[in-house]
Design brief:
With 464 residues, this protein is an alpha+beta fold. It has four helices and 26 strands. It has helices spanning 29-34, 36-65, 315-324, 332-338; strands at 71-73, 78-79, 84-86, 91-95, 98-102, 107-109, 121-122, 128-129, 134-136, 144-148, 152-153, 169-172, 175-181, 193-199, 208-212, 226-233, 261-262, 274-277, 282-285, 290-291, 296-297, 382-397, 413-422, 437-438, 450-451, 455-456. A five-stranded mixed β-sheet has the order 7-9-10-13-12, with no helix packed on it. A four-stranded antiparallel β-sheet has the order 15-14-16-17, with no helix packed on it. Strands 24-23-22-25 form a four-stranded mixed β-sheet. The protein starts with 28 loop residues before the first helix and ends in an 8-residue tail after the last strand.
Length: 464
């Protein structure tokens, strides 16, 4: 019998009991009452009812998961080691109107080409390829991969001279190959965001998954067959060895554990290039913010949006723009906690404005990175905060207006409105650190040494 039934064991010596591991009531005692045929039939009925109940429960959940935008899970998606993403143990979600389920955790390695949407395989001679296929010239972790732009058969005798520049092409028999970056190689992941998509299943209700560098749909798929459910950011530069640091030994292209988000565990804002600080329950931009012409962005190698950038910024303008994007400036306690693990008492190597964001070292050649992955917190630029201070006076002042930034006045302050700054600048040496604060600049100050970093509330509050 496949099913184990509840045992009923009365007090006493258990002789002829109504249920022990040797004498199950449904199989033994029913046989004594009505014969072995009855016992077997009764067991089949119980098996059938149990199966139908379980099936009904699953079908009910699948029906619920078919509701538009449905997504529920038992634990968040998470980094597994430095180069893999682990799914929840239980995941129910809707993909294009159909409920899908996952009932055991899966782990996907970002170094494996088969886990990416490009599905690049090592190139072969005299082989048929279809337009849209990807190959690597050597192994699946080559720096470059190559996309077939035509359908046909490769040369039977010649090996292509593979181009080493994105966009360049090479002829190979009937196939034309175009050079692309290969995301399975960590060099190509450094300082970038990537996504995990669930793929619609036509055969059953268990989705498949694929990584992609595309933020809309994976290569070779469309919006009807996929759903973006998870994302992460990869470290921009080697951390090296830092005693006691959470990221010691991490290298460029590794997954930042605190950057992993899903449709439940994520910021209210767009989640790209942010990390989560569990102590303050806030998401913060990994990099000092840059202006891309439309919005403030957290990107590796960006130009700090400060008082000397092409578009100039002060505290008021920084706050207002971030608010338009669903973010804000961080509170001091958020910055203080998220910056822990950064260099303390040192500034950036060279003691000068770096202009760009991320990947820097201090005067002791130590990487300027916090335990959760924030770059350039201490000893690079002062960074505007949400905290305000006040100074009395006997007249109106322009502490919230500066003609270098504002096209008109939006009122004045009676006395001066000061906005707190964090972290200290490139020349402050021993004064730099996660608790450093500047308390004497009005919010409309436009200075080359004042930039910003966005923060966001979590979509769902977490508990420690």
């Amino acid at each position: 019998m496949s099913k184990k039934y509840p045992n009923i064991v009365p007090a006493g010596d258990k002789t002829q009991s109504l249920g022990t591991s040797e004498k199950r009531w449904a199989e033994v005692h029913a046989g004594k009452i009505e014969g072995e045929n009855f016992a077997g039939r009764l067991a089949e009925i119980i098996d059938s009812l149990a199966t139908k109940t379980a099936l009904a429960e699953v079908e009910g959940k699948i029906g619920t998961a078919s509701a538009p935008l449905y997504f529920t899970l038992d634990t968040p998606f998470a980094a597994s080691g430095k180069r893999a993403i682990k799914t929840p143990n239980i995941l129910w979600l809707n993909i294009n109107g159909k409920g899908h389920k996952l009932t055991s955790a899966l782990t996907f390695d970002v170094d494996m080409a088969a886990n990416w949407d490009l599905k690049a395989t090592p190139w072969s001679k005299h082989t048929s390829y279809t337009a849209g296929d990807y190959v690597t010239s050597t192994d699946e972790q080559g720096i470059y991969c190559y996309k077939a732009t035509t359908t046909g058969t490769t040369s039977a005798t010649l090996t292509p001279e593979w181009p080493q520049e994105v966009g360049k092409t090479v002829n190979d028999g009937e196939v034309v190959w175009e050079c692309c970056t290969n995301p399975a190689n960590p060099v190509n992941r450094a300082g970038k965001d990537f996504y995990l998509y669930a793929i619609y299943s036509t055969a059953d209700v268990v989705p498949k998954f694929t990584f992609s560098a595309n933020s809309t749909v994976p290569e070779g798929y469309d919006a009807d067959t996929t759903r973006k459910i998870c994302g992460f950011h990869c470290l921009c530069a080697d951390v090296g060895t830092i005693d006691g640091h959470a990221l010691t030994g991490y290298v460029a292209g590794d997954i930042l554990p605190a950057s992993v988000w899903d449709l439940y565990h994520r910021p209210k804002s767009e989640p790209e290039s942010m990390v989560y600080d569990r102590f303050s329950d806030a998401w913060l931009d990994i990099y000092g913010d840059s202006w891309d012409g439309k919005k403030l962005v957290s990107v590796y190698g960006g130009v700090w949006a400060d008082g000397a950038s092409e578009k100039k910024w002060h505290g008021e303008a920084s706050l207002e723009q971030l608010m338009r994007q669903g973010k804000r400036l961080p509170w001091r306690y958020e910055f203080q906690m998220a910056a822990r693990g950064s260099n303390e008492g040192t500034n950036i190597k060279g003691s000068a404005d770096p202009n760009t964001t991320g990947g820097h070292v201090d005067t002791a050649e130590r990487r300027m990175i916090s335990d959760i992955g924030l770059e350039d917190c201490c000893g690079v630029l002062w960074q505007w905060g949400n905290d305000l201070g006040f100074a009395g006076g006997n007249g109106w002042t322009d502490s919230v207006y500066n003609s270098a930034v504002d096209d008109k006045k939006y009122g004045q302050t009676y006395g001066s409105l000061f906005r707190l700054l964090f972290g200290a600048i490139w020349s402050d040496g021993a004064s730099c650190g996660s608790r450093s604060a500047y308390c004497a600049r009005v919010s409309s100050s436009v200075d080359a040494d004042c930039g910003c970093r966005g923060a966001s509330e979590p979509l769902h509050r977490q508990t420690l």
